[in-house]
Design goal:
The chain is built from 7 helices and 11 strands. By secondary structure, the protein is of the alpha+beta class. Bound molecules: coenzyme A.
Length: about 240
C-alpha cells in the first residue's frame, strides 16, 4: 500500500541482518535484483556479504516503492562519480525521492526524503579501531573535545563524531573526497549537534539538520539532511522488507 512521505519529513528504515523474517524471504528478495545486482552479488565471496547485499537491495527497493506506484524490481539506479547510488530515472508522477544507505555488522539503514540532500551512517560500536583515527581524520577541535571526555566513555563518544561526519559527507555525495578535517561537530547534548566549516569547505551550517539515535544498544546512527526552513520530522523504525 502506498504511504505518503511528507515533504518536510525524513524516514529511516532499519533492518537487522540476522532478522529471521528477513532470512525467510531471501528467495523473494533475489527476484527483485537487476542483472547488474545479480552479478555484483555473485562476485561476493562470503555468504554473509551476499546476504547483506541482498537485504540492502531489498530494503531500498521496497522502501522506495512505498512512496510511489513503482514495483520494487522496476527501480533503476546509477552511481554518481563518487559512488553514491541515485535513481536513474523517475517515471512521471513519482516524487523526487532521495535516499542513502549504510550498513554495519548486524544492521542496515536506508534514509529517504524528497528533494533534499540526505546522508545516514550506522556503526557497530564494538568495532575495533586504532586509536590514532581521530588524530588522523577529525578536525583539531573535535580531537580536543573528544580527549576531554573521560576514558570509559570516549570510545562510545568517538562514534558520535564518526557517524555524524560520515552522514554529512554522504549527504553531500562526495564520500571521502571531502576532507574530514574541513568541518567540525560540536556536541553538547541534549542540544542537537552543530556543524562548522573551514573556509576551504564553503557551506552554510544553518541549512543542516542532524540527528542521532541508538537503534540498538550497540549501534549508533547519525543522520544529516539539508533543509531550508524549520526542522524536519524524522522517523526511525525497524522493518522487515515486504515483498
Ligand atoms: C563510501 C563511504 C561514502 C561510506 O563508507 P562506509 O561508512 O564504510 O559504509 P556505509 O555502509 O555507511 O555506506 C556505504 C553505502 O554508501 C553509499 N555510498 C557510496 N558512495 C557514496 C558517496 N560518495 N556518497 C554517499 N553515499 C555513498 C552506497 O549506497 C554504499 O552502499 P552500497 O555499496 O551497498 O550501495 C565513505 O565515506 C568511506 O569510504 N568511508 C570509510 C570510512 C572512514 O574512513 N570514515 C572516517 C569517518 S571519520
Amino acid at each position: 500500500m502506498l504511504e505518503l512521505l511528507p515533504v518536510h519529513a525524513v524516514h529511516v528504515d532499519l533492518v537487522g541482518t540476522d532478522q529471521p523474517d528477513a532470512q525467510q524471504r531471501q528467495e523473494r528478495y533475489v527476484a527483485l535484483l537487476s542483472a547488474e545486482e545479480h552479478a555484483r552479488m555473485a562476485r561476493l565471496v562470503f555468504e554473509r556479504d551476499r546476504r547483506r547485499f541482498l537485504l540492502t537491495r531489498a530494503l531500498v527497493r521496497t522502501m522506495l516503492s512505498r512512496y510511489a506506484a513503482v514495483a520494487p524490481q522496476d527501480w533503476t539506479f546509477i552511481a554518481n562519480v563518487h559512488g553514491r547510488p541515485e535513481l536513474l530515472d523517475r517515471p512521471a508522477g513519482v516524487p523526487d525521492l532521495r535516499f542513502n544507505i549504510s550498513h554495519t555488522e548486524g544492521l542496515i539503514a536506508c534514509a529517504v526524503t524528497i528533494g533534499r540532500e540526505v546522508g545516514v551512517d550506522v556503526e557497530h560500536v564494538g568495532r575495533r579501531l586504532t586509536h590514532d583515527v581521530p588524530a588522523r581524520f577529525f578536525a583539531p577541535r573535535e580531537v580536543a573535545d573528544l580527549n576531554a571526555v573521560p576514558e570509559p566513555e570516549r570510545d562510545k563518544v568517538f562514534f558520535d563524531y564518526w557517524t555524524l561526519k560520515e552522514a554529512y559527507i554522504k549527504a553531500r555525495g562526495f564520500g571521502l573526497a571531502l576532507p574530514l578535517a574541513d568541518f567540525a561537530f560540536r556536541l553538547a547534548p541534549p542540544s542537537p549537534p552543530e556543524i562548522s566549516f573551514e573556509p576551504a569547505l564553503p557551506d552554510d551550517p544553518a541549512t543542516w539538520q542532524f540527528a542521532q539515535d541508538w537503534p540498538t544498544p550497540v549501534h549508533r546512527l547519525g543522520l544529516a539532511v539539508r533543509r531550508s526552513g524549520p526542522d524536519l520530522a524524522i522517523r526511525i523504525r525497524q522493518v522487515v522488507p515486504q515483498v
